[in-house]
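Support request from a user on the community tier.

User writes: "When I paste my structure tokens into the form, the page sometimes reloads and wipes my input. The last time it worked, I copied everything first. Here is what I submitted, just in case something in the input itself triggers the reload:"
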């Protein structure tokens, strides 16, 4: 990368506002560097379509273009996953819980190996910050319990009617996919139209996610984060939001 192509970072002190999108060449790197991971900072960042991602050193804040987004109406429920959910439910082996073990979920996400990555971006400071965000009511875990054990799950940020997916883990086959399917069912139940997936991957695309222009994404987020916050609860009947005959 030449000097003329190097991204211009905004350096932030704790409490500083985030820069306006488009004032730096964040397509080539982060939007900003610095600030802190307090609840107020994280809430302000996500409400503007910005998220932290770093492994060491100063905090890096990102707002990629384009943005990978799963519109919940477009979620692809494969016939095999539908049958797996139905089979496990009918056998009494599957239970979905929300926020039962948030700390455990984020810790297991941090320990999950990622292809092409050494270590994890979910460092201890990040784990602590998202746990604080969870206690404040703006971060949730969706957990797949099989035979009484936590087999997989995910955690996400939830502000107003906007949902921002963060990470998932799986200890048993399909456990993380089931957690995502449950999250989609919750989103449909509470009229939350999209889940931010941040970066494009083939796996997300196979589930129905697609790239969205950043300006369009930010317009959605501005509207959704301003709406009234809803409390989440999942019951087996909520699987019908995913497919009307899933449990038959």
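"...and here is what came back when it finally went through:"
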């Amino acid at each position: 990368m030449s000097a003329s192509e190097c991204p211009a970072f905004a350096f932030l002190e704790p409490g500083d506002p985030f820069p306006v999108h488009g004032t730096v060449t964040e397509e080539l790197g982060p939007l900003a560097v610095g600030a802190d991971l307090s609840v107020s900072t994280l809430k302000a960042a996500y409400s503007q379509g910005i998220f932290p991602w770093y492994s060491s050193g100063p905090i890096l804040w990102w707002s990629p273009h384009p943005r990978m987004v799963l519109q919940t109406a477009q979620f692809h429920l494969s016939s095999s996953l539908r049958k797996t959910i139905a089979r496990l439910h009918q056998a009494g082996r599957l239970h979905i819980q929300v926020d039962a073990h948030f700390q455990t979920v984020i810790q297991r996400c941090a320990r999950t190996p990622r292809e092409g990555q050494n270590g994890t971006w979910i460092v201890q400071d990040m784990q602590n910050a998202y746990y604080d965000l969870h206690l404040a009511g703006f971060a949730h875990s969706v957990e797949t319990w099989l035979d009484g054990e936590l087999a997989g799950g995910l955690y996400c940020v939830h502000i107003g009617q906007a949902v921002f997916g963060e990470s998932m883990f799986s200890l048993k086959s399909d456990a993380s996919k089931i957690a995502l399917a449950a999250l989609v069912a919750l989103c449909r139940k509470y009229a939350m139209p999209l889940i931010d997936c941040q970066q494009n991957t083939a796996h997300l695309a196979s589930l129905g996610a697609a790239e969205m222009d950043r300006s369009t994404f930010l317009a959605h987020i501005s509207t959704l984060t301003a709406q009234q916050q809803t409390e989440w609860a999942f019951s087996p009947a909520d699987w019908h939001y995913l497919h009307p005959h899933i449990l038959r």
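Agent notes: The reload is a front-end session timeout and is unrelated to the input. The chain has two domains: 3-64, 68-241. The two ends are 56 Å apart (CA to CA). Escalated to web team.
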